[in-house]
Amino acid sequence: MMEAVVALIVSGGFALSACGQDPSDKLADRVEAAAENRADAMEANADALRNQAEALDKKADRTRDVGEARSDAIEAADLNVATMSQAERDAIVANEAAAVR
User: Fold this and answer.
1) CA torsion angle for 95, 98, 99, 100 (degrees, to 10)?
2) How do the pLDDT tens digits run along the chain, 101 residues long?
3) Alpha helix (H) ranges present in 20-93?
4) What DSSP state is assigned to residue 80?
5) Whether the predicted model's global pTM rises above the 0.85 cut
6) 79-100: b (≥16 Cβ within 10 Å) or e
């Protein structure tokens, strides 16, 4: 929100300062304003990526917690793994099957 206000003030200032400027000054102001807009967009993208990274970190933590809980449940149930097929074991490891029923 604050960035939008600053952008309006800056662009308004450029419009007022453009009166009476020579063409090279006007072009320089446009270049600077365009660079500012691109930089603002980059910062917004960086903020979004930081938010995505934080969400992914939280998801990774939850995944570890679930894996630890499943491991503890398997150990507590003292499963007879010898009677399971390799496909059943693989499904449990891949979190595609219940660890304990």
Assistant:
1) 170
2) 556 655 656 566 655 555 678 999 999 999 999 999 999 999 999 999 999 999 999 999 999 999 999 999 999 999 889 999 999 999 999 999 998 87
3) 23-77, 86-93
4) -
5) no
6) beeeeeeeeeeeebeeeeeebe
